[in-house]
Write a structure and sequence with these properties.
Pfam families: IstB_IS21 (PF01695). This is ATP-binding protein. GO terms for molecular function: ATP binding. It is built from 10 helices and 7 strands. It is of the alpha/beta class and 253 residues long. The protein is globular, with a radius of gyration of 21 Å.
Length: 253
């Protein structure tokens, strides 16, 4: 890496303060390196590193209006953070291929670069496996040590919540994480392809169970779904596969 032409690689520059005194402050190159380090520390997968709000392209034929509305909500959230969001997060709900993860990562990257946020990205299944690893005697970390960054991250993305088969341990773990973040007034951004509806009530026959669409309430429990709806702004997304539409538009077909 070549030396910065402004600071000569030391990371500091001398500027005059409002009081007319010469003071030192971090050079822009140093600030840029700090941003890059925060992005790297956020554990954003490589395939999502280029996902920004500006690159969420929906200018294609038959794009559903809900996608444009979701993008507007994402931008407003960034503009309002952290004063007006007051610990609220975002819950992106919709079928696969609508760009839910793209928007979630786009929000996190903007917050990291523009607000200096310390964030974390976890796929839901990866998150549960990460926590379970504390039970492995070869892992030199306790469950609390593994959970601490997840519980304390200023902004946490949980991608594709509900994909893990529900068990008592899964429900208890999800409840612990979400309740801790709710009580700490920390923003959590969540994506799911399950409809954000309660579990089916009453006794259902096998054909009725097979015909009924599985809901997020079925996967994480109704009490946690209620908590999610309380701690997040719900963003419903509809339409055809966003990724396939963009590919077709890119090739001009």
């Amino acid at each position: 890496m070549s030396e910065c032409e402004i600071c000569g690689g030391v990371g500091l520059v001398r500027v005059k303060s409002d009081a007319g005194l010469w003071v030192s402050r971090a050079c822009e190159c140093q600030e840029s390196q700090a941003e890059d380090l925060r992005i790297k520390s956020a554990r954003i997968p490589n395939k999502y590193r280029k996902c920004t709000l500006d690159s969420y392209w929906i200018d294609f034929t038959n794009a559903h209006e809900s996608l444009n509305s979701a993008l507007r909500t994402a931008r407003k959230f960034v503009d309002a953070y952290p004063i007006d969001t007051k610990g609220k997060g975002l819950l992106f709900v919709g079928a696969n291929g609508l760009g839910k993860t793209h928007l979630a990562v786009g929000v996190l990257q903007r917050l990291i670069r523009e607000r200096g946020v310390q964030g974390l990205f976890f796929d839901y299944r990866e998150l549960l496996k990460h926590i379970q690893s504390s039970y492995n005697p070869q892992v030199q970390a306790t469950e609390l040590e593994i959970l601490r960054p997840i519980l304390n991250a200023e902004v946490l993305i949980i991608d594709d919540i509900g994909t893990q088969k529900p068990t008592d341990w899964v429900w208890d773990t999800v409840a612990y994480v979400l309740n801790a973040r709710y009580n700490g007034e920390l923003s959590t951004i969540i994506t799911t392809h399950f409809p954000a509806l309660p579990a089916g009530k009453g006794q259902l026959t096998d054909p009725e169970k097979a015909a009924r669409e599985i809901s997020l309430g079925d996967r994480i429990g109704d009490s946690m779904l209620s908590r999610l709806c309380e701690m997040c702004i719900r963003v419903e997304m509809s339409g055809g596969d966003f990724r396939q539409s963009v590919k077709r538009a890119s090739f001009g077909s």
